[in-house]
Amino acid sequence: MRHLFPLLAVALVGVAPAAAQDAHAGHGSHGAHADHAAAAPAAHYAHEVTTSPADGAMMDGPPDWFTATFPHPMILRTVTVAAEGRPPVAVPVAAGAATTRVAADLPPLRPGTYTLNWTAEGADGHSMTGAVRFMVH
After folding, report:
1. What pTM was estimated for this model as a whole?
2. Per-residue pLDDT for the chain (137 aa), expressed as one digit of tens each?
3. Which residues pair with 69 in a beta bridge?
């Protein structure tokens, strides 16, 4: 089962979601980072990107893949995953058309704490980036 990291939850209390960001107003997302200022506040759209693993997840086993679901079609461009204290490893991303659900196969992961970073691009060229922190038991 997945549970939130107790320390991560405490660290995030009172902080607006900032793991992903969309450059267009109206397309912001949970944990999103904008490439330029958006007219609408990003917190308003904080619930619109869903990832698996989820940010803060504690997993009983390693995930086989990373997925992100967007409110509008996106193309997954890059994914990296890094074990705590280790350099990031690039994850191969298959080329494809813009879609609302993107995925990438992850390498085998040992028990530990990980940070996964991703970038995606909309058909109109706007980009989104995000970070997901999770633990594998």
Report:
1. 0.70
2. 444 333 333 333 333 333 455 444 333 333 444 443 333 333 334 458 999 999 999 999 999 999 999 999 999 999 999 999 999 999 999 999 999 999 999 999 999 999 999 999 998 899 999 999 999 99
3. 50, 101
